[in-house]
Structure formats: C-alpha cells, structure tokens
Amino acid sequence: MAKKLPAVDVVLVGFGWTGAMIGEELTAAGLRTVALERGGWRDTSTDFAVTFAQDELRYMWRGHLFQEPAHQTLSFRNDSNQTALPLRHLGSFLPASGVGGAGVHWNGQTWRFLPTDFVMRSHNEQRYGAAALPQDMTVQDWGVTYDELEPFYDKFEYLCGIAGKAGNLKGVKQDGGNPFEGPRARDFPNPPLEMAYGPTLFGQAARDTGHAPFPCPAANMSRAYTNPLGVMLAPCTYCGFCEKFGCGNNSKSSPQTTILPVLMRRDNFELRTESEVVRINMDSTGKRATGVTYVDTQGNEYEQPAEMVFLCAYILHNVHLLLLSGIGTPYDPRTGQGVVGRNYAYQVVSSVDVFLGDKILNPFVGAGALGVGIDDYNGDNFDHTGLGFIGGGYLACWNTNGRPIEYHPVPKGTPKWGSKFKKAMAENYLTTATISTHGAVMANRGNFLDLDPTYRDARGRPLLRMTFDFHDNEHRMSDYLTDRAVDIAKAMKPRSINAKKRTGHYSVVPYQTTHNTGGAAMGSDPKTSFVNKYGQSWDVPNLFVMGSAVFPQNAGYNPTGTIGALTYFALDAIKKQYLKSPGPLVQL
Amino acid sequence: MPDTLRRRTVLLTGASLLAVYAGTRSYARTITGGIPWMPGPGDAPTDTGALKFFTSDEAAFIDAAVARLIPADDFGPGAKEAGVTTFLDRQLAGPYGHAETWYMGGPWHDGTKSQGYQSRLTPAALYRTAIKAIDDHCRQAFGGKSFSTLSPDQQDSVLTDLEKGKFKIEGIGPHAVEIEGAKEDSFFSVLMQNTIEGFFSDPMYGGNRDMIGWKLIGFPGAHYDYRPYIGQHGKKLPIEPVGLRGRPGWTPHQS
Description:
The complex is a heterodimer.
Chain A: E1 3-4, E2 8-13, H1 17-28, E3 33-36, H2 44-47, H3 56-61, E4 74-77, E5 85-86, H4 120-128, H5 146-160, E6 168-169, E7 172-173, H6 197-208, E8 214-215, E9 225-226, E10 232-233, H7 255-258, H8 260-263, E11 269-272, E12 275-282, E13 289-296, E14 301-311, H9 315-325, E15 348-355, E16 371-374, E17 393-398, H10 419-428, E18 432-439, E19 448-456, E20 462-467, H11 472-491, E21 496-500, E22 543-545, H12 560-578
Parallel strand pairs in A: 1-14, 2-3, 2-14, 3-11, 4-20, 14-22
Antiparallel strand pairs in A: 4-5, 6-7, 8-16, 9-10, 12-13, 13-14, 15-18, 15-21, 16-17, 17-18, 19-20
Helix pairs in contact in A: 1-12, 5-12, 6-11
Chain B: H1 2-21, H2 56-69, H3 84-93, H4 123-141, H5 152-164, H6 187-200, H7 212-217
Helix pairs in contact in B: 3-6
C-alpha cells in the first residue's frame, strides 16, 4: 500500500538536464517542486574528481555512470517478425542513472537543428515532390519552428557557456562560422576552443575541397565563465575524458555545473534520490494526472500527488512509463494507428580513419566537443535531386580523446592480433585523424517502441521493446556522407585511409550514439503526435514530456541543444499561459 | 621494480593489519614503516599474488594466449609481460566476471547477431567453459598437449580457427564469428577485448604493468591538464605516463 504524501505543485520524473531546468524556472515562479531520481546524488568534487576521473576501464568499459541492465533494460529486434531479446549489457547507446542523467557523461556537442529540420515533411514535399518520401516514411513537421525556438536555443547556450563561432547573425553570414545554420540573435557566449592539430588539418582540407569548415559548438569551457544564474565554470584543460565520464574540473556544462548550485538552495525545491517512479496516476476521467507513484530502494511505495507532472527521464524511460501507465493509445504498426511508441528513431554514424603517418596529432589532448565540422551535407543544405534519400548529417573531425582501450586505430588490412597488430597500434596512435559522419534517421512505419510480452525487469514490469532497423534512406544517406568524408580524407594527403561504412542491419552491439528519439512525438495533429509543440499531452493537459521522446524524427545533429531549447520554449508558455489558466496550450 | 615491490609489501601489510583489527572495538592504531594506505575496496589490488579466479592451468592458458594476441617482440614487451593474466583474473573474480550489472533473466534464445550477447554464461563461466573446450580440442589435435604447451605457430593456428569460427566451442552461445564492430560476440572477441583492456587500462587493475601499453603507443595516462600542449601542433610531447596512483618515480627511495 503506497504511502500518500502531501501534494505539491510540480513533480519531476528524473533529474537530468530537463528536470534541473524545469525545477529552476518553476521554483523561481514560486511553485513547490519535487524531483524524483531513481539513481543517487552525484557531484563534481566527490564523484568526478580529477584524482580518479581518468579511469577508462571503470567508467567507459564497466559503465560506472550508466544504467545497469540488471535493474532495467529493454528488449530489441530489427523487425516485427523477430522475437525481441533483452540487451543483457549496454552497447549501442548508454543511458545514465543518477543525478544529472546523461548530462553528466555527455561530450558537450551542442548544436541547433536547421530551420528546415522542423518542417521535414512539408519542406521536402515542396522541394522534391510528395513522391520523394516513401510511403512507409512517417516523418512529420514538428509543429514548432526554428524562429520560435531561437530565443530558447540562445538561453540554453548562455546557461551552458557554449564555445563557438556564429555563422549567421540576424541573417548576415559570418566568416569562420557555420554558414548553413539558422540566424542567431547574437554570437555564442564563449569563443571557440583552441583547436587541436588533426581537426585543423581536416579544416584546411575541407576548405581546399570547397566546403565551409567551422569550429564545432562545445559545452567545454574555452575560458572561465559565469552563467546567467551566477554559476561559475572553469576553463577546460583538454584532459580527453568527457563522454562516458564526469568532468572533474567544472569545465563541462552539466546540471551540476550550471543549475544545481542555485536550485538545491531553494526552499520550495526538494530532490529525492533512489526514488524510482513506477506509474503516473490518473483521475477517473482519464484527462488529468493526479501525480506519480514511486518506490525507494527499501521497496517502500509512495504516492506523490502533484498539479503538474513532467516526464524528465531518458526517452526510453519516458515512453516506458507512458505505456506502463496506460496513457495514450499505443502505436500499432499494422494499422499505423496510435501514438505512444510511434516514430522511434536514432542516428546513423560512420567514420573514416585518416592515417597521416608523419604528422603527430596527440589525440589525447582533447575535449568532448573539440573539433572542426562541415554542414554542407546536413539536412537540406544540398540538392537531393536524384540521390534517393532526404536528410543528411554533419561531418566532423573531433579530438575528443585518445583513451587507448577505445582508440587504437590501425590501417585497413592489419591483422586483428599478433605482432603486426601491435606494431600498427604503435605506429598509428599518435598520427591518425578520424572523420565522423553524424546522420539523421527518418521515422519509419516499422520502427517503434512497445511493451515486451515476455521479459520483465527487476520490479516485475514488462521491459520496453524496441523494434528498429535502418532503411534505404539511412543506408543511402550514410553511404553518401561517408563518400564525402573520403573526399576530404584524401585531400589531407594521408598514407592510407579506412572508410568504415555502416552496412547491414542496425545492431545493438557496437556503441553508436546515445541519441535515441521519438515514441511520444510532437506535432499538430493528435492522431500522429502524443504532445503539442510545448511537450504537453493532448489527452492529459497537466502531463508534459521533455527530452528527445518528442522528436518526430531525428536530425543530423547531437540532440541536447534542441532538447534545451524545447524545454525553455515550453517553460515560457507554461509561465505565461498555463499557470494563469491551466489547460491545453494549443487549441485544436 | 624495487619501488613496486616495496609498495606491494606495504599493501599486503596494510591488508593483514586490517584483518587483525577487524572485529575489535579498539580504534587506536600504531602506524610505522610506511604510509598506511590501501586501495579503495572497489579496486582490484595491484599485487601479483595468488590467483583469485583462474586455476594454475587456466592461468597458463591465458598467459600463452595473450602472449600471442599481443606478443613480446622487437617493439617491446607484450600482454603477458604487462600482467594481463593478473588483470583478467581480478576482473573475472569481481563484478564483471559475475555479470553483476547484466540482465541475466530468461528465456534464452540465440537471436540474431544484431541482438548481441545472448549466452547464459557470465564472463567468468564463459572463460571457464571456453578454456576447457579449447584445451580438450588441443589435446585431441596435438597428441595430448594443452594449448599452453604448443609451439607459438600451433597456438596461432588454434587462435585463428577460433577467430574465424572454424572451431566452435559448444555451449557458450550462438555467435562464433566476429562481426564488424561487434566486440563481445564470441569467446575470441571477449578474450581480445579483455586483453586490450588489460594492456591499456590503469595499472591499478593489475595489467599495463609499468605502463607498458601506454608507453608502446605514447599515451600519457591519467593527466588532467594539457593546456600548455594544445597548441603544440605536430610535436611529440615530453610527458612521462602517469597512472591514477602516480608513477614509481614519485615514491622516494626508502633507504
């Protein structure tokens, strides 16, 4: 029997980036807010200190900051005809557990999506004709535009102290920035990071081959920075332990380094850790959420009533919780009806190793978002006529790390073990650059999330089941991007290159990206979306879904910048409209 | 090396002191002869003392196998010299070996390659099963000889068969052949991945002894501030590798 707790105004399910942002803004607006986090408390000085943070085995390979499948995992299959089997350990993507969420162990690559990304269907149909989008491609417009989001991208970038160079200020192109980006009202809060050698050589080759290289936007501090909340971040030391690690220097933006020092002091805020939400509770009308039920590590069950419920956990947990709570109509791939679990998407990545032989690049002098990119082949920045696909991705040469268990490139044809392998590692470690491609994945009728009929988690709940594969659009696009990366790699005058195309079925085994999206998509039509453009449930107006679960399809960028913008955009409407008059923020 | 040995003595002494005092109510302690330091309880000790998981025969197999995967040669010491067997022994005796964080609930199916590891064996059980199967195979094929007593060329041919899936180990799961990018799909892949881990992880886990792996490729280890070096394009940096517990040169000689 759950113990019923005193009601609060706001309950946050999960306490990563979006939970911290909402907690800060709504406590400032005077609301009593409780955050429930299934993992533990984590902060910089005690959990990520530089005396032990640089431990590749512990953090990356033994997953110290990640969700433990023994506690919760999901099942996976490539298509509906297969039996889904559980991910017994993590691989393709790495959700977190604990305060700060994946915002602790991200790299800090903080992009804006393109204006055309938000009108994916209407834009592409207009430019290429309706036939350019295959029947089973269920992409849709977001219902929100880049122009609406711009002030909130800006707000998130200033919260984080993003380092970069504007390429488009109020419609005027800027030398050295990304010329394809949507217009910005002002430049980045911090200048670009100092650039490493490999990305510098890539930038030169990209320019020589007619592209427009720019320093990638980074949540790694290029100088000391005090954000608008008054929280101070320290200059990045280029230690090369970002993604999969916490930052010991307060140099990488995370909830801990940008918001929590302010939020945790607020009298009207309370964080409960080791508290896992198991259900969203509804009233008898099914139109109003009454709060949530959660369980602590002793197995005690609590009911936390609240006026507003925000799902702020990782996308997979948010969708899982909706399905377990019976909210919304689950998606059925046979009929195409239903919205919860619909339009699950991911990203398609590939890379080209560039063996330079005589140039010492020092890959270990790195930062998570230290790199030079080109956006010439992203979104609809290029003419897709005759290419057989829509969308694209950025190409970048990063100097994120030289952590040797993960990174020991050897030329194509090298034996996988033995003396020749060892010699090749020794000869190429310091002198190899890698160009990566970061491709979008379009929503597809056959890709979705639902509940597994067989496998259950440690609490006895059905696992989330993922049905996903790459389709023709992804393979054609990724091959195209990889070929363009090869063009630039050759212009770097290497001794040899090794192009690693993404072929065949999607596999959960090798790490790719923790950029899962969809399952509670936003849009303008409740038949094809679970939330409106403010992340507000069409069916349950006091329930909001944050994070990438609301992406109707994925774009060719890392998602965190857009997640931040969407969250601040929703908060703005909630503060201006919803709090005065609770109810639907979009009228049909 | 003498420094390392002294430190090891300190470690073992510290551990036995703790054992003596455990269960008593006295908190008074006399500290003498060195720093009463001991590794965190979550860390595998760096000593090369008694095996914690492998039998001596299994350890001989691993010594022989990793010595072929990353051999000692003109380029310097290899995985065996780096202590990869000790690393693996400690890993398999600990949470990793027991698949403590893995989802190990049934039912069990082979699945497809893209569905990943579906063996019901933990890494520890996988090693135990696979080593026995490979040694049995070797005894049959090479006149009663176990893997570790074969010639290097014979060992290479056994490993190659294992890698290419020509020799399948019964009962360990579905996928004998490595797929591109998949790191943990067969025993060979697991062994290779773990060997790389032991060769390149921080020395406190028992492998990468004297930072052999890091020195081979030029990785400076657990540094956290490269600001003076970021602009030094094309230059080999004069940085000695360091582990999370420092490096031997940091501990002053005691005599």
